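Supplementary material to the annual report.
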Amino acid sequence: MATVTATAPRAFLPGILKHRAAAKLALLALAAAVLVPLADARWSSGSWPAALTVDLTEPLGRVSTWIIDNRDSHPLFLYGFGYVSNAVVLCVRAVYVVLLAAGWAGVTAASALIAWRVAGVRLGLGTAAAFLTCGLLGMWIPTMQTLALMVVAVLVSVAVGALLGLASGLSDRMDRVLRPVLDTMQVLPAFAYLLPVVLVFGIGVPAAVLATVVYAAPPMARLTSLGLRGADKEVLEAVESLGATSRQRLLTARIPLARKELLLGLNQTIMMALSMAVIASVIGAGGLGDRVYQALASVDVGAALAAGIPIVLLAVVLDRVTGAAADGQGDTGSSTGLSRRAGWACALAAAVAVALAARFAGRLDWPGSWSLNIAEPVNRAVDWMTDHLYSGVPVIGGTADWAGHFTTWVLDPLRDGLQALPWWSVLLIVAALAWVIGTWRTALTAVLAMAAIGVLGVWKPSLDTLSQVLAAVAVTLVLGFATGVAAARSDRFERLLRPVLDVFQTMPQFVYLIPVVALFGVGRAPAVAAAVVYALPAVVRITTQGLRQVDPAALESARSLGASSGQQIRQVQLPLARPALLLALNQGVVLVLAVVIIGGLVGGGALGYDVVFGLAQGDLATGLVAGAAIVCLGLMLDRVTQPTERRAKKGA
Amino acid sequence: MRIRTTATVAGACALLLLTGCGAADMTKQASPFANAQGAKSLTLSVQSWVGAQANVAVAQYLLEHELGYRVDTVQVDEVPAWDALSQGRVDAILEDWGHPDQEQRYVKDKKTITPGGGLGVTGHIGWFVPTYFAEQHPDVTNWKNLDKYAAQLRTAESGGKGQLMDGSPSYVTNDKALVKNLDLDFQVVFAGSEAAQITQMRQFAKEKKPFLTYWYSPQWLFEKVPMTEVKLPAYKEGCDADPAKVACAYPHTPLQKYLNADFAKNGGKAAAFLKKFKWTTEDQNEVSLMIADQKLTPEDAAKKWVDGHTSTWKAWLS
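Predicted assembly:
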């Protein structure tokens, strides 16, 4: 990617950059010199001034009471949300009934055959194995429930996302309007808006599906828009010269040309919907997520893992199959349309035959005796681990000691330092960072987001959360860059690493809450650990990819000049992969922030705890304000770490 | 498969648009997974603690095997569970620890929920220290002496003070106010979930370390980690009326069942059964321990208990 054309201007860029950055900072310093004394005199320093906060407890409390009182009678609900809710229930039910009617054999056969047609024999077999494993783990019915939920949620997300993407891909004005909306949707942690959705739709599947759609639609919209905008100009001109109307142009040229992006969007949407499937179990979505969540309640890691594995398997299968569909358009072109259709017909017939055979054999339900009990050995392993690592390990000390030191030496000073800073200096730092890296617009957004946190009256807990995020990001980056460099230098290591990363990226976060507490005790340290585990895969992946894309010629010439491998990394690969590393930083921040709320479940406190508290107590004021503060933190951090060019989609 | 599924979904949605002309009643929606094979069904709410799981497991087992119902369970926190109960998303809560606001709103004002009688178990919240610690230092069991032990109870999280560990945000707690009003040198640290709290307590107990925690009975963990209650200023009726001024212990609460009003009226045998469901603390603990410690599935645990206590549950069915 970063070829010679990119390296040529680099030679004189730093000079300009330095000059520009210095000018920006000077300007900012000037503004600060005028504004700070004023602000200081008016509101004094220290924590965010009380005069500048707005208390939303009262109005939000009224809103929630109004909804509860009118939910069963007001036309808005009877003729509006009620229909939405009913439609979701009906659709999910329809899919679920079809899946049950096909039986385990039918579903397995059908999905394996689809995977085979789309992505080849190996993935077909893999898919069959994945579904059979779900059955073996005794999770067939929950898997089908999750699948039913997913099918509906993904279809709706794709429809919504494609519409939004179409609008912003075809009209520049819509693009400008939608861009910040999509940005916000992407940094919104899913937990934060569960509460309002639950309040309107009540506990259960409709709320879960709608929350999933909000979460999963943005990547589809973004990639659709990207695809439409990226369409080859020459082809479009050719089509235009043939006299096609704009509608024909869209249908015959632009959409087909954007096929790759559309499929990639589908892929991303599926991944995000699946990760939401577990979080949605907190509001009664049922299925695999619910099993994970219930296992958590009885502190049963084994059972949680048994329900988590099917989620990982579903994610890997869906990812590979849709990924292959996006990549594979080139080589399917070789076979003719007729034989492709025949292949599909065969696949369909085979699937129906298997389903019918199973039906007549009376084998619709997964046979109860075919099961594999993994819970017990897993629990034994976890027990062993915590018995032997928690404390008293010679020389290095136990994990509990590390956690204690990490809290006292890193988290405490960081938190206290941030909270001790005068409020205006925090704003200044944010402005300076965001402006140096980006434009005055990004700087303004960042400052406004940070100020909004103060206005909402959650300045202190937000800085507490921020300190945890910063610590977690730092650890993630150190580990991630080190692993990424190793993986980029060794093909074998990368191959070994890939399935591990897959598992960590898709395993529901709830599964590793208990082991994390067992190792690190209750508090902020386990919350940081959970965040690191979650964010690490993306950072490793982006780093590896970035390093591997460094121009081989540059590396070769460095080698011919006799650079040692350490020098090669430091002086050639890392500088050339700078954009990728910045992207990794940005993704690390966004993903760590997504786990902040989960951290509230293991003693992380601060904003995460408030969101969980709001959800558990039906307290809209506490939950929504904390959720909004997390969103603002996310926006701020995103802008501060975001290179000027718009980066790729979330979850990379 | 995928194509057929899509077609079915599209069909269902179209059908809905065609037929949906009346008002859509938000209180009349069950789970889409319920009744999938045409059985009589009901939905029970499970809360996150194991005692609640035990109630539901036994009720579910008997409803399925003795009365022929299909039972769905949903795990929901307490306050949202009341909401779900009033909407008919769940049919019953089997263990409620007292939510006066919700009771006023749904039972008295809106009449969408009716009381289902007592569970037979009395709940009590309090502050506990492990018994091994209380035996070494008998005076720790009075709140007046707690400050003496603050240094021993310090952790990295409690910032120089002693740590009082609280649990899930969904639980009823006055601990922050208590620490402040009793002027104790302690910091309340929220474990954030019961699972995290239990894991931490077991970890402490394994090393015989002292700790102070918010905890409640009945609870199976007492069998694994014996704990002694710390005496707080005695509870008097109404002393916890103002959440900011609380300076007394928690009450003893006879746990209650609540049913959705429609279900209570038209629920037939299932509703009658749930109203009669009543057992003792020992019974509940027996089942809880099987689930949480021996890692039996709730269903297996319920079966074991049901097989050994025929006389108890026969009375619920009559």
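Residues 16-21 of chain B have pLDDT under 50 and may be disordered.
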